[in-house]
Amino acid sequence: PEDESRAVAADEDKRRRNTAASARFRVKKKLKEQALEQTAREMTVKAEALEKRVHELETETRWLKSLITERDPNVLGSVQCPCHHPEGLEPSSKRPRT
User: Fold this and answer.
1) Residue 65 to residues 15, 59, 80, 88: CA-CA distances in angstroms?
2) How many CB atoms lie within 10 A of CB 79?
3) Which of 6, 17, 60, 69 has its CB surrounded by the most CB atoms within 10 Å?
4) How far apart are CA 23 and CA 31, in angstroms?
5) Distances 52 to 43, 47, 58 between C-alpha atoms, Å
6) Under a CB-based contact definition with an 8 Å cutoff, are residues 43 and 67 in contact?
7) Each residue's pLDDT tens digit in the chain (98 positions)?
8) Residue 59, exposed/middle/buried by CB under 10 A (0-12, 13-18, 19+)?
9) Range list of β-strands (E), 1-98
């Protein structure tokens, strides 16, 4: 009878420890999942910003190439780079009249 009650107590203790360990595991897993989701959101924002920057650089490259191919010295003073100008002007759209 006494051995039996010790065995029951040991089983109950084991069950309580296992339940507590399971709860700790679930909390840890949830925190890890939340951290991964946050990282995914941050990476998405960063990727979008980088895509925007690529687009700006491509626009600037096209603009610079058009300046080179036009070989017009007056164009530098009359047109702003489209990536830094709100209207996104094309190099040939605003030339001073001579």
Assistant:
1) 74, 10, 14, 15
2) 21
3) 60
4) 12
5) 14, 9, 10
6) no
7) 788 899 999 999 999 999 999 999 999 999 999 999 999 999 999 999 999 999 999 999 999 989 888 876 555 555 555 555 555 544 444 444 44
8) middle
9) none
Contact 83, 59 (CB under 8 A): yes
d(CA 45, CA 43): 5
Residue 8's SS3 state is helix
* Residues 83, 63 contacting (CB under 8 angstroms): yes
Fill in the amino acid letter for 63.
Answer: W
Three-state secondary structure call for residue 32 = helix
pTM here?
Answer: 0.54
